[in-house]
Design goal:
This protein is an alpha/beta fold and about 400 residues long. It is about 35% helix and about 15% strand. The protein has twelve helices and 15 strands. A seven-stranded mixed beta sheet has the order 4-10-9-8-7-5-6, sandwiched between helices. Helix 1 packs antiparallel against helix 12 (about 380-395), helix 4 (about 70-80) runs parallel beside helix 9 and helix 5 (about 95-115) packs parallel to helix 6. The longest helix has 22 residues, at about 300-320. The chain binds pyridoxal-5'-phosphate (PLP). Pyridoxal-5'-phosphate binds near residues 132 and 234.
């Protein structure tokens, strides 16, 4: 047996989180695509049966009150809150990440320019996931701002008294690079601007510390490391002391102070509900709520420690098995700069990934030449990691 196989066995035996894998529905495949779509938590099918048959089928309209449908966006937001370092009452679940990016960024510009001090520029992460860039372009046109794409590391030098808002990705979706949220948020604040963070690739994989680092606004999806299911609703964080000034560009009846008053004038609700828009997608929302039960008793710090051990071990196995020069890691070697995925550049990456998947190792491909492997510490083990690197080497050979 190779030294790496026995090391993997030792690491799995010592892994305090190993038992959590039983909380998911998995098979023989090595699933390294939880950074795109998290695996199915075992509690979800039974819960959905109840939600559909009893809550919808039998209670029908009564479920808005009796099954807690109406308050689900805030209740589930409070369940996500500790995972991203937020106190209760600041997160609301609903809509897609794209829609929440729009709400947050326009509201950020309105917060920054509310005092009429002539701020007219939005900075956007030049390496962002595309939707954020498109929406930032539209938000800029709507608010009369100019848009400047800037690499996250260059943001401090690009900030000025003209900057209204800055939209950044916490972890780069392509390379897996983790950006300095505390440092960049502080720099944005020093310039008098408002920081909006996209947490899609960090929430559920590492501690975020939203309250601790004074983040203004944040958004994220729930179908990656939070395992909420395909298209499960996203969330919006608005720091408590900004909530009264949060002026949503999508005010709907669900964010009204008196939603059932059916008033013609708009009066925004207090607190997190102000981030709502219209009728929430209850089926997806309640699947997410069941999915979040896998976090019971799990510390995000332990998840981060295992995530780094998994990605370290993967890089070590790749270096041992794959001939030098065949793949190039785009993921930073330094722990403080690494999310929970490893991105490897190689020739013919699209075909390589197809063959990997056919051999039972599931990652994904991002054009033009990137293989992405996501490591979800709740259900990925060290033997999976060793096998993935070994199959990759066989595939490339
Ligand atoms: C970083 C990031 N932002 C935004 C999105 C878009 O999310 P949605 O399609 O749910 O609106 C994604 C999707 O993968 C993403 O990775």
């Amino acid at each position: 047996m190779s030294e790496l196989i026995s090391r993997a066995q030792e690491l799995d035996a010592a892994d305090q989180l190993a038992a959590l894998r039983a909380r998911f529905v998995l098979d023989e495949a090595v699933y390294l695509d939880g950074n795109s779509l998290g695996a199915l938590p075992a509690a979800v099918p039974g819960r959905m049966q109840d939600v559909v048959r009893r809550q919808w089928g039998s209670l029908r309209i009564r479920s808005w009150d009796e099954s807690g449908w109406w308050t689900a966006p805030e209740r589930i937001g409070d369940r996500i809150a500790p995972l991203v370092g937020a106190a209760p009452g600041q997160i609301v679940v609903g809509d897609s990440t794209s829609v929440n990016v729009f709400k947050a960024l326009v509201a950020a510009v309105r917060l920054a320019t509310g005092s009429g001090d002539g701020r007219e520029e939005i900075l956007v992460d030049a390496t962002t996931f595309p939707t954020d860039g498109y929406i930032a372009g539209s938000a800029a046109r709507m608010t009369g701002c100019t848009l400047r794409p800037v690499a996250p590391a260059e943001v401090p030098g690009a900030l000025s008294g003209r900057t209204a808002a800055v939209l950044l990705n916490h972890v780069d979706y392509r390379t897996g690079r983790l950006h300095d949220l505390p440092g960049l948020t502080a720099a944005v604040h020093d310039a008098g601007a408002v920081a909006v963070w996209d947490l899609c690739h960090s929430a559920g994989a590492l501690p975020v510390g939203l309250d601790e680092h004074g983040v203004d606004l944040a958004v994220g999806c729930t179908y990656k490391y939070l395992n909420g299911g395909p298209g499960s609703p996203a969330y919006l964080y608005v720091r408590r002391d900004l909530q009264d000034r949060f002026d949503s560009p999508l005010p709907g009846w669900n964010s009204h102070a008196e939603p059932f008053g059916m008033r013609t004038d708009y009066e925004p609700a207090a607190g997190a509900p102000r981030g709502r828009v219209g009728t929430p997608d209850i089926l997806s929302m309640l699947a997410l709520e069941a999915a979040l039960e896998v976090w019971d008793g799990v510390s995000i710090e332990a998840v981060r420690a295992k995530s780094l051990a998994l990605t370290d071990f993967f890089l070590e196995c790749v270096a041992a098995y794959v001939p030098e020069g065949t793949v190039e890691s785009l993921t930073p070697a330094a722990h403080p700069e690494r999310g929970s995925q490893v991105a490897l550049r190689c020739t013919g990456a699209g075909d390589v990934m197809k063959r990997l998947i056919a051999s039972g190792v599931v990652g994904d491909f991002r054009p033009p030449d990137v293989l992405r492997f996501g490591f979800t510490p709740l259900y990925v083990g060290f033997a999976d990691v060793e096998r993935a690197a070994r199959v990759l080497a066989e595939t490339l050979a």
